[in-house]
Amino acid sequence: MDLASIGSLLGSLKTATEIAKFIRESDTSLEKAETKLKLAELVSALADAKLEAAEIQQLIIDRDETIRQLTAEAKLKAELKWIQPCYYLSNSDGQEEPYCQNCYDSKQKLSRLHTDGKGFFECRVCTQNYKTTERLNRESEEFSRNVKRGNGFF
Length: 154
Description:
Layout: H1 3-25, H2 32-79, E1 81-83, E2 86-90, E3 96-99, H3 101-107, E4 113-115, E5 120-123, E6 129-131, H4 133-149
Antiparallel strand pairs: 1-2, 2-3, 4-5, 5-6
């Protein structure tokens, strides 16, 4: 929040108060033209104060939104777990769900991964595929067995 805005608002309110006090304390001999001039100044000072109050209110709303966003980001970072090859986040039922590393690391976007339940994950947003270390080891062993049997992929 800008201290100059607050100071300006307080100045406008002080001016409006002084004008209102002058009008209230003026005796009946004051000419109508002078009263009208003071009323116009009062209205102007109050309008300035109203505009500055609205600007301060908008600054507060913007600040609160920034705080809300930063709080949500901090909460997500605290809850998000990295377990090779993807991120995991607990859903409302407490189950860990996998999310795409590429989408989150590059765009801070959570994209759910589809899995075959055997260590293979696919992102349908960026089309990235992931395999767990166990899956890679299993495939490597299977490949080695096939090569030994003469059933290689060559």
